[in-house]
Amino acid sequence: MNDRIQVSSDTTSPAKTTADIAVRLDGVAKSFNNTTALHEVSLQIRQGEFLTLLGPSGCGKTTLLNLIAGFTQADRGEIFIDGALMTDMPAYQREIGIVFQNYALFPHMSVTKNIGYGLKMRGVAKAEIDKRVEDALALVKLTGYGERRPRELSGGQQQRVALARALVIRPKVLLLDEPFSALDKNLRGSMQVELKEIQRKLGVTTVFVTHDQGEALSMSDRIVVMSQGHIRQIAAPNEIYRAPTDPFVASFLGDVNIFPVTYIGEKDHIAALRLGDTALYLPKERVRAEVGTSALELYVRPENIVLEPANDQSLLTGTVVHHVFQGDHVDSYIDLASSASKRILVRTAGLHVLDLWPVGTLVGLGMPVSDVTAFAIPN
Could you tell me the pTM of the whole model? Predict the structure, then answer.
């Protein structure tokens, strides 16, 4: 199998009608200075969905967000919001709310005026602006902060103001461009929970851009994994983590061990692989390669490898060389006895592993076949 781009949609939900789609992109492409940022991307975002665009820097996720917002014009393709064509519509007519990385608050304006600015520009009556601003302040838990200036607020409070400003206009779509990147770890975690609660309460369709895998997995209804201007996979967080359809997706989301394996054959929807000197039998859907493809790579999450006493029946054996205590789990590094791989990572919940398998112990390794995936080695 060649290294073609594979796109997987979420098959756990029923098919959506046109009325259920908040945003639709049909073959949207964009280049900058002869460099292609997006390669004819097609995507449907459901009404009320929290969809995350995830990928490394330069993958095209911010370009895609800017195209939806109307800040950038597509070279090809069409963009629809609530069924209306928006491809050439200016940003201010798209009924989009957006929160930027740096919040982009007006430093000379009070919190109240910052939040109400969009309503004022739309010609909303002052009494209505006052009411909606107060409601927005209550929503983001900033009641009583209306007269402060941005410089008098913490980073988390500024982020709330930016969110309130985006929501007060009652947007059809809320766009979030890495809004937590400037916050420390603890504050970032609490803001993730608050944002998700607000999004669920309002039911606003939300497109969230991040390069943080943990953020994407914890907050999203679906995740769009992107690389080099392509969509590599679209699925619910659990599916995209446990059943990646692409080697890039498997390696980008979380830690993974990669073993060289050989495809022996298949029978009755069971694929036979050879890992070192041992045969390994996987459900055929777990092997992303055509029969006849000889060299494959087996992708295994560290939490899906089990340490056990070494014996003749062990799938693999190795020596414990290092333990790293991580609070709720222990990361163990194992040097394998065979040539299948050099060093692998095993992740175990709890502390018992430190006593059961001290450094220097020869251990056996097991792995449930339902939690591993094999891919053809890219050309």
Answer: 0.88
Query: Quick one: pLDDT band at residue 188, thresholds 50, 70, 90?
Result: confident
Listed residue (307, 306, 300, 298) closest to 259, CA to CA: 298
CA distance 11 to 235: 8
Pair 271, 283: CB distance under 8 Å: yes
Instruction: Give the residue from 300, 243, 299, 292 showing the smallest Cα distance to 263.
Output: 292
Residue 186 structure tokens: 């603890």
Show the DSSP H helices in the chain as ranges: 61-69, 111-121, 126-139, 155-167, 185-202, 213-219, 237-242, 247-252, 352-356
Strands (E), 169-315: 173-177, 205-210, 222-227, 230-235, 257-267, 270-275, 278-283, 287-288, 295-300, 306-309
Q: What is the pLDDT of residues 136-147, one digit of tens each?
A: 999 999 999 999
**The pair of three-digit structure tokens given for residue 69, joined into one six-digit string:** 């917002």
**Cβ–Cβ < 8 Å for 244, 373:** yes
What pLDDT was estimated at residue 15?
A: 45
Four-residue CA torsion sign, 230, 370, 275, 268:
negative
Mean pLDDT over the full length of the chain:
89
- State the pLDDT at residue 313: 85
Q: Which amino acid is at 81?
A: I
Phi, psi of 363 (to 5 degrees): -125, 155
Q: pLDDT tens digit string along 43-52?
A: 999 999 999 9
